Amino acid sequence: MPLILDIALTHLRNRRRQTLVSILGVALGVGFFIAMAALMQGFQRYFIAKVIDVSPHIIVKDEYRSPPVQPLQRLFPDGAIALRGLKPKEELRGIRNAAAMVDALSRLPGVAVAPTLRGQVFLRYGSRDVSATLVGIEPERERRVTNLERDLVDGRLSALYSTANGIILGEGLADKLGIGLHDTLSVISPAGVILRMQVAGIFRTGITTLDNFEAYALLKKSQILQDRPNVINQIRLRLRDVGQARRLAATIESRYGYRSESWEETNKNVLGIFVIQNAVTYSSTGAILVVAAFGIFNIISTVIHEKTRDIAILKSIGLAEGDIRRIFLLEGLAVGVVGTLLGWLLGYGLTLLLSTIHFTLEGFIKSEGFVLYYSFTHYLIAGAFALVAATLAAYLPARKAARLNPVDIIRGGA
């Protein structure tokens, strides 16, 4: 074994308790980082996969991102006179020239398009009234834009054609009504239209807002209920390359003027929470590693203080400043390496332990336990951070030790 390494390990063995505490500090930081990263990223990736899988990638709505400019402002943008209290011109809601727009979007390569009419309704079954969002769809187009057909746990999507006034309910919605397949309920719209509809299917996506509040019917039936014949208020798109959603949404909005939201914009509130979650995770685990780094700094500083005369002797027999610095850097690195290896084992064990915990979670999405994401990258990041922290913690006292003058030490001046 090289002399420098032998000296470094001897110093650590002589201070076993402090060395063990520092190693445990590094191991805890690395282990908790791996477990927390698997937990956070697992949930985030599961949510994003669900959103991308279940929902359309772009939604074109019958609204504008900014209120339309009034004629006076358009004609005299810098005029000295301003009119206030103007009511905007009332317009019928709905996408104008929707058929041509759907046809044009359908011609884009790698894009599937489905027109829909969304509206609020009351569902009445016996004495129970539940509000819901009724989505009017064309099943042939819908199965290319969403996975509604795959998410059906009861019934068939094509039953909307064969069932008189058929309706498909989310599982949570059906539970609230206490209704099952082939049962009949009343659907009441704000326009005052009432239809008796038969349950043709029940779906479960795993996304709470969809399962608890959405229902589907044929587009024509929805238009009758909303008293809006031949009107659609949304065009939904699914892309072969989901990474192009933001760019294509901006292109559609600039071309047609209607607000076009990519799936990132629609879910930006939840994605923003994920950023905060990541910041909390990295901050907390980083704090553990910083505390461990202070432990390493304390060990090496104490060793240097106790071994001052030994350092003088080592320099007297020919060891250069670089050799002295390497001795103490090796001590910090040794603590970091051992702590990292133990931390990897701890992180793997914690991740396995979390995977065995089962419970029912119902928030943004439904889950039967923690959703974990195993990645070797987490181990590399945690290990690299721990080694850098350990090396930096050892560098300052090592540099001080290397600068000690052996003559001053022997004379008692240091």
Write the layout of secondary structure elements.
Elements: H1 3-14, H2 16-54, E1 58-61, H3 71-75, H4 98-106, E2 111-125, E3 128-137, H5 139-145, E4 152-155, H6 159-162, E5 166-170, H7 171-177, E6 184-188, E7 194-203, H8 208-213, E8 214-218, H9 219-225, E9 234-239, H10 245-256, E10 260-262, H11 263-266, H12 268-306, H13 308-316, H14 321-355, E11 358-362, E12 366-369, H15 376-402, H16 406-411
Parallel strand pairs: 3-8, 5-7
Antiparallel strand pairs: 1-9, 1-10, 2-3, 2-6, 2-9, 4-7, 5-8, 6-7, 11-12
Helix pairs in contact: 1-14, 2-12, 2-14, 2-15, 12-14, 12-15, 14-15
Description:
- The protein has 414 residues and is α+β, with helices and mostly antiparallel strands.
- 55% of the residues lie in helices and 18% in strands.
- It contains 16 helices and twelve strands.
- Helix 12 packs parallel to helix 15 and helix 14 runs antiparallel to helix 15.
- The longest helix has 39 residues.
- The mean pLDDT is 83.
Throw out a few tags for this protein.
alpha+beta; 6-stranded mixed beta barrel; two-stranded antiparallel sheet; 414 residues
**Quaternary structure state of the chains depicted:** single chain
Helix content: 55-70%
The SSE string, one letter per element, is HHEHHEEHEHEHEEHEHEHEHHHHEEHH
Q: Separation of termini?
A: 31 Å
The proportion of strand residues reads 15-25%
Strand order of the largest sheet: 2-3-8-5-7-6
> Biggest sheet, open or closed, and with what strands and sense?
6 strands, mixed, barrel
Contiguous helical run count? 16
